[in-house]
Specification:
Structural class: mainly alpha
Radius of gyration: 17 Å
Number of domains: 2
Order of helices and strands: EHHHHHEHEHHHHHEH
Strand order of the largest sheet: 1-2
Shape: flat
Length: 173
């Protein structure tokens, strides 16, 4: 954001990972908008069943890889895990940071995780093939991976580097 550091007062207490999870699982009911505090839009989304699913899908993708969403007070909803990593290890975090984006990983996991595409993206070829051959462990492995990428600890690539949310990282760097 033009080199200026964002103060804690401009960051919402809500978590981007939780928002993405709500949009994925309950987006057609507007739960993601209720979480953001946007009640009017949430009710409209609920009444239209997420615009027959299209609005829900667009919101999900925008939360994962679009610009940072904001809450009803205009505060930015960021990935708290990325903020914690940057704060705790400010000196050596760039050495342990992957070039891959957590938002892209989440999208690949949800949409193509049953085929192991998320594991291939992480550089884990063997696990990607196994996940492909088992159709994401009969979709159980696929579901668990997707949820862990959204709200669990940081995923790592094949080199052991953290895959962080690039939009949040740009905000706090």
């Amino acid at each position: 954001m033009n080199g200026e550091r964002i103060t804690q007062g401009k960051i919402s207490p809500k978590d981007k990972g939780v928002l993405i999870l709500l949009a994925w699982l309950l987006g057609i009911f507007g739960v993601d908008q209720f979480y953001r505090g946007k009640v009017g839009i949430a009710i409209l989304k609920l009444l239209t069943l997420g615009g027959c699913g299209i609005w829900a899908l667009v919101d999900y993708i925008l939360y994962a890889v679009g610009s940072l969403p904001s809450d009803s007070e205009g505060k930015l909803i960021v990935d708290k895990k990325t903020i914690e990593s940057v704060s705790a290890k400010s000196d050596d975090i760039s050495m342990k940071m992957s070039q891959k984006d957590k938002g892209v990983l989440i999208i690949l996991s949800v949409l193509l995780g049953g085929l192991g595409i998320d594991r291939f993206y992480r550089g884990q070829i063997g696990l990607g093939i196994l996940k492909l051959l088992t159709l994401g462990g009969c979709m159980v492995w696929h579901l668990i991976d997707s949820i862990l990428y959204m709200v669990g600890s940081h995923p790592v690539d094949s080199e052991g580097k953290f895959i962080l949310d690039k939009k949040t990282l740009e905000l706090v760097k």
